[in-house]
Design a protein that fits this description.
about 140 residues, alpha+beta, Rossmann fold, 4-stranded mixed sheet, two-stranded antiparallel ribbon, 4 helices
């Protein structure tokens, strides 16, 4: 689907496997909660593919569920998020079903793992610009 309004840049919305998506001349790439569903061994190749399709100075915004290296802190943030969901009206059953559905499918990594992979893909710099519970958004510049 292509959207136009006056002389604004074209926006193209695609529904396809990101690993086979052609990326060319991109100034911004946004990946919200996508990489965590890609096999860990395929993530570096995907980020390199994105990097090569971006303009110099382009920005990658990557939002992911994360895990903490310290298991106590990791569990604290998981529990805090589940408590938040309960306060928002989700039942224990709904929370449990979602957790079960995502187990071994959603594979979170540490922020450091994301940063190292992004830098190894060629990006000049990367850092966290937002974090809440065990969710984080990173911004990287080519």
């Amino acid at each position: 689907m292509e959207l136009y309004q006056n002389d604004l840049p074209q926006i193209e919305i695609l529904c396809q496997d990101i690993r086979s998506t052609e990326i060319t001349c991109a100034s911004v790439v946004v990946m919200n909660f996508t990489l965590q569903f890609i096999d860990i061994e395929d993530r570096a190749a995907l980020l390199e593919h994105i990097y090569h399709g971006m303009e110099p100075g382009g920005i990658l915004i990557l939002s992911e569920k994360i895990r903490f290296p310290d298991t106590t802190l990791d569990q604290l943030f998981i529990d805090s998020y589940h408590n938040f969901k309960q306060r928002m009206g989700y039942s224990e059953l709904e929370i449990s079903r979602k957790r079960s559905a995502l187990e071994n499918v959603l594979l979170p990594e540490t922020i450091d793992s994301h940063k190292q992979r992004i830098l190894a893909s060629g990006f000049k710099t990367v850092d966290v610009w937002f974090q809440c519970f065990n969710f984080a958004s990173l911004v990287a510049i080519k």
